[in-house]
Amino acid sequence: MLKDIDFKKVEDTAMAIIPEEDGDELVWNAYLINTGDSVIRSVLVNSKGYGEIEEKTVRTSSLRQFFEFIDAGSSVKVEEIREELLILNNEFWVSFSKDGYLFDKKYVFVIDSLRDEHFIQVPVLQKKGVLIK
Which of 86, 85, 91, 40 is nearest to 64 (CA)? Predict the structure, then answer.
């Protein structure tokens, strides 16, 4: 039964969206960061955007990425987010295996959260961006 399952809290992963220059262009890249001391395995990231624009409900297609593992203290680039999608909620649902347990967590960058005043120094990447733990 559901009450018998030991749900463990996700503590050692984070999502970050970082503006980076690509030649003359500014791109927004989403990264999954393993801040823990051990590798995470079988990492599945499901991402989508949603919100309302001019009173119309807008949804992007869902993207799924699989990473066999992410080493301790490292990160992987999940996707590039186009500038016009920054006005939507950007959701990342992450599932992974660690120490024999299955973990999952949802990270949502809400509308208007990707602004300079929310930027911090992102651990592991050592770049300025928005981080959700």
Answer: 91
Q: Which domains does the chain have, with CATH numbers?
A: 13-132 (2.60.40.1600)
Express each pLDDT in 38-93 by its tens digit.
999 999 999 999 999 888 999 999 999 999 999 999 999 999 998 888 899 999 99
Exposed, middle or buried by CB within 10 Å (0-12, 13-18, 19+), for 5?
A: exposed
CB 73 within 8 A of CB 34: yes
User: SS3 of 118, please?
Assistant: helix
DSSP state of 4: G
Instruction: Note whether 36 and 30 are within 8 A (CB).
Output: no
Enter the tokens of residue 49: 């955007």
